[in-house]
Design a protein that fits this description.
The complex is a heterodimer of chains A (221) and B (746).
Chain A (H helix, E strand, L loop, with lengths): L1 E5 L6 H11 L2 E5 L10 E4 L19 H11 L4 E4 L1 H8 L6 E3 L7 E9 L15 E8 L3 E3 L2 H9 L3 E5 L12 E5 L5 E4 L17 H8 L6
Parallel strand pairs in A: 1-2, 1-3, 3-4, 4-11
Antiparallel strand pairs in A: 5-8, 6-7, 6-9, 9-10, 10-11
Chain B lengths: L6 H4 L4 H11 L5 H10 L2 H4 L4 H4 L9 E3 L6 E6 L2 E9 L1 H6 L1 H17 L4 E11 L5 H21 L3 E8 L8 E11 L14 E6 L9 H5 L20 H16 L5 E4 L4 H13 L2 E5 L12 H6 L5 E6 L4 H10 L3 E9 L3 E6 L2 E7 H5 L23 H9 L8 H10 L7 H4 L10 E3 L7 E5 L4 E8 L2 H6 L1 H18 L3 E10 L6 H21 L3 E7 L3 E2 L2 E2 L3 E10 L15 E5 L10 H6 L11 H16 L3 E6 L4 H13 L3 E4 L1 H7 L3 H6 L6 E5 L1 H13 L4 E7 L3 E6 L2 E6 H8 L2 H5 L2
Parallel strand pairs in B: 4-5, 9-12, 17-18, 24-27
Antiparallel strand pairs in B: 1-2, 2-3, 3-6, 4-6, 7-10, 7-11, 8-10, 9-11, 12-13, 14-15, 15-16, 16-21, 17-21, 19-20, 22-25, 22-26, 23-25, 24-26, 27-28
The chains are: A alpha/beta (221), B alpha+beta (746).
Chain lengths: 221, 746
Amino acid sequence: MIGVIQFPGSCDERDALAACERVGEARMVWHEETDLSGIDGVVVPGGFSYGDYLRAGAIARFAPAMGAVSEFAARGGPVLGICNGFQVLCEAGLLPGALLPNGGLRFICRQVDLVAESCDSPFAAELEPGARLSIPVKHMTGRFFAPEAELDRLGAEGRVAFRYAAGENPNGSARDIAGVTNEAGNVLGLMPHPEHAVDPLTGSDDGLTLFRALARQPSPA
Amino acid sequence: MTVADAPHRELGLTDPEFERIVELLGREPNGVELAMFSLLWSEHCAYKHSRRLLGKLPTEGERVVMGPGENAGAVDIGDGHAVAFKVESHNHPSAVEPFQGAATGVGGILRDVFAIGARPIAVLDSLRFGELDSERSRYLFEGVVAGIGHYGNSIGVPTVGGEVCFEAPYEHNCLVNAMCVGLARSEEMIRSAAAGPGNVLVLFGASTGRDGIGGASVLASAELEAGDGAKRPTVQIGDPFEESKLLECSLELLQSELLVSLQDLGAAGLTSSAGEMASKGEVGIEIDVRRVPLREPDMEAFEIMVSESQERMLAVVEPAKVEAVLALCEKWQTGAAVIGEVTGTRAMRVLDGGEEVGNVPVTALVDECPLYDLEPAAPASWPYGNADVLGERVAINAGRTADPEDPSAITVALLASPTIASKRWAFEQYDSVVGSRTIRRPEAADAAVLLVAESDRAIAISIDGNGRRVACDPRAGAIEAVLECAQNLACVGAEPLGLTNCLNFGNPEKPTVAWQLTEAVSGLAAACEALGVPVVGGNVSLYNETEHGPIYPTPVVGMVGELPDPERLPGPGPADGDRIVLVGPFAPSLAGGELAKLRGELDLGLPATEIAPVAAALRFVRERVRGGGVRAARDVSDGGLACALAELAIGAGVGVDADLDGLVEARGCSGETALFGEGPGGVLLALAAAEAEALLAAAAGSGVEALDLGAAGGERLELSAAERELTLPLADAERAWRSLGENVER
């Protein structure tokens, strides 16, 4: 059972839930819930949690459900943060780096190509390094940033899951990074939206692989 | 208070209107009452110059579930579902404060749709500004686009399409029309009529502040004047997070069957919402303003009654369900308060801490506003300006040495014209994919296409208008606006189900504007009748006028249609070797077109349009598209065939070689007119050669005109039309067509 966290102000939670339901069972987890028993994987979806008027993800990290998500991640449970979810996981300290306003200072919605880099994480079970995925981005605050040394380390430790394909970096992200994992590899933050790439009719189904991989994860200890 | 004191004049009421109020009440109104009358008797709320005309529009149809008069119209799409939609203007607020004006325009139209129990699934915008070489136009364009994005993106409703035009008459009075489309289970839809004396009024959502006081009367129902920056406090401030909670809360309240009726608070705030609910339900309403949650505790009674603070809804609730309603509001962290009740008195009674401060008959407030007849008179000559800028535009876009009469140079100048150029700069700032329904994103097709798996089909949506052409001939131009939408729908195989419109005009008390309005409404009515498309709702925005003159008369049409099988949708452009076929009675004319504008040759008059042959051609196109085998379909619009063929070629990255001599002969027009002339009734289809042959035979068999123009291939646009020839590398055409961004950020 995949749990999709729903904050007031989430936008993509219903789409994330629908994407999960294409490959397995899923349910919504209200932001005030703290009991994740029975949940085998978590999606922190996109949107503007609590309005994001302070800083993207800054309020949501204090949500009761996020305390439970942190414990879940610490036990090795797989957690996928998408867009705002990525921002929330960075704010919560579950992922390295930070997400800054786009280089162009404007919201961008665009279909982009991603290239899978490190495929060690459970989310990339079906992918080979170099695989290209066509997935949309849509964000105002998606420019991945980390100090140079940290970027070197992420690369060396195989924690860069996805980069934007050459010439496709929409927001000025450092080293074209589109997605990173935590040290253990069970938490993935991704700026593009795989839940909006699960049906060729609406543009692409390249994102489905991430949800399939998530659904196949064993329950955490 | 006497007429001579005239506080009513400052509030926008005329002396005879004030005298009428005194007559209806049998006494002079007090301050609270006068404030309420001034808002509800404003043009914006009472439609006093347009209501009689609007009666001419056809509003009935088999599929209509909700017609004009409700918060939004709705049409049945089968399997127990309905699509709700409406377009509304936020012109003057956007001209005064573009970001918040546009943002709250989106917020307002979303509320109209979820107020009837439909979940918003798409937003489209129709925008008009002055020419982009004006700094003010660039400021307004940037601000409006950012404002639309801010609100729509934050609340998670995709912005899937729209149009943007740039014309000098909008320089001082931009137009921002937003359309929202929602999806509802028919049985969960709700009306706004209050019912059941003793039932309770619950106001929920944001608290009430001093923003937007007098917006509907001072701002929306009068001409804009110099120094209108001082009117900024009349513009509301939007909070999409509050609206997001309000939306989810409203829909959950309706699903839980906890409400008797529901209405959003828009122009004229509580006064309008409560007044209309009481009027429709033929009941009375009593409100105590001190029970309204306030941002500033010292607000006066009249301010609370007319505040246009955003993100608020008013519900009628049975007493036994009030507790459950308040609990659900608590869950969604949205404020809620019981502020009054429904009464059997047919009076609108306002209390301030229990003490009566206003008491007027609901009918006087809502239904007794005097209606005015227009006094139309056609102008003797073209009432707007003309400027010859073709040489300059050619020099900028095709090079200093280019000949402004050369068709290649003209094509480049037209493609770079901001009204024709790709709007990617704007629509990439909008989330067009949230909701997982968007099958055709902006510019991927002439109409936006959304999946509605709930009833196993897709819907197509288009919003269109062409103020310049309506200025040339209001009746023909309005017909064209409806046909343009129908053409866009036909290109994706969709059959029109219903239509909404926003009538943006100048000051109707002036004879020329009155003529424009009268003629345009008659054109809209004729086109809707002929196509069999009912008007299910709309909005009128008058007084779009400044000391520099009125805007172009701009009826904006939003149309929704359905298609059975989205798998068969055409793609973005032809494949190498495909034939390009022109279908329909398209009879190009340079009158009122983009080229006539660039040459400064605009004048009154457009060729008359026969609607029936266009309708027949569109039925033919729709059936061919639905049958599959059409690789790409685009209608001929601004900039004529040259631009339509160029856009088709750019869409696929494949050149086009076409010969328009057949059209020149059939219409007896010049080569230049065939290349750049505009008019309704033309659709370009790209198909494999065998498919094209079958299509031409089928067209001949059904009496629909179809002309094989040429083939796709190569990397150039090569067109010939009698004495005119043009050869343009596709890369040059694409560079010109994609130049909008650099023109905005110059």
